[in-house]
Design goal:
The structure is a single chain. By secondary structure, the chain is of the alpha/beta class. It folds into 2 domains: 172 residues, Rossmann fold; 87 residues. A 5-stranded parallel β-sheet has the order 2-5-6-1-7, sandwiched between helices. Strands 3-4 form a two-stranded antiparallel ribbon. α7 links the parallel β5 and β6. The longest helix is centred in the C-terminal third of the chain and has 19 residues.
Length: 295
Amino acid sequence: MEEIKGQKIPKKILNSIIKTGKFPSTFLFYGPPGVGKFSTALYFASEILKDKKKTFKGTHPDLAIIFPEFEGLEKNEIMDSRRNKEYFKLRQRKGHISIDTVRKLQDYTYLTPMENEWKIVIIAQADRITTEGFNAFLKILEEPPPNVIFILITTEKHFLPETIVSRSHTVRFSPLPFELQKEILKDESINRFGRGIEETLFLNSKKNLEERIEELFFSLSSKSRLKNWSEELRKEWNIESMLQYLQKKVEDKYKNKEITSSKAWNTFSLLKKAYRYYYSNISAEKIIFYLMLKV
């Protein structure tokens, strides 16, 4: 896992587990977007399966990689977007992990491993599992199949049910220093940095979003917000982009002591509900109105 930039503590934890050979049935990798969670999961899996080439191609028979279902995209296209540092664009698209996917996953995990003593399941953006899917997945975790390792990956740990988190071995991934991001991106035109590569690319693709979020949610009252509503605003903003950036703004304001812990916690709770509404196919317009009235 030396190829992973930064993340000394996660690498140390996982290397130690590999040496002992005693693997928890479920891992939860969480942290900002674009800090190496998915890549680390692949390296970790390749160490256990002892086949880096098949693991990174996603062709190992004892490895299942689950992504949200994005309309019009195949799994290989999603993998390509990661290799090309374009996955941040998919985070702005609607997608979910359905109960049908979880049921198929359950069937897969009970099959005997073909080339290794272990089977590994990597679930990217695990927070996008539907409520029904989480209920089905919890049943798997309550009686995990032998020799199966689950790796859940999320930027939003607090959006996962506590029943899932409590059954997982959590590994926290830290933000990447700006200088390290510059080294990875090798792009002198980038001057706005987030906590990770994907967040940085997202912020640079939405240069006007910061000012609009700041004005709308932190400078105006609920009544004034609704007066500022327009059809152009709905068209301009992708709802998930707004949720992602609003969350970041709340985190920053709490760290800078601009808002209280109770205000931050209350806003995170509202955002959690907003994400659930979003994944339940409630219209973007209704979700934006909900946030305008509540945040």
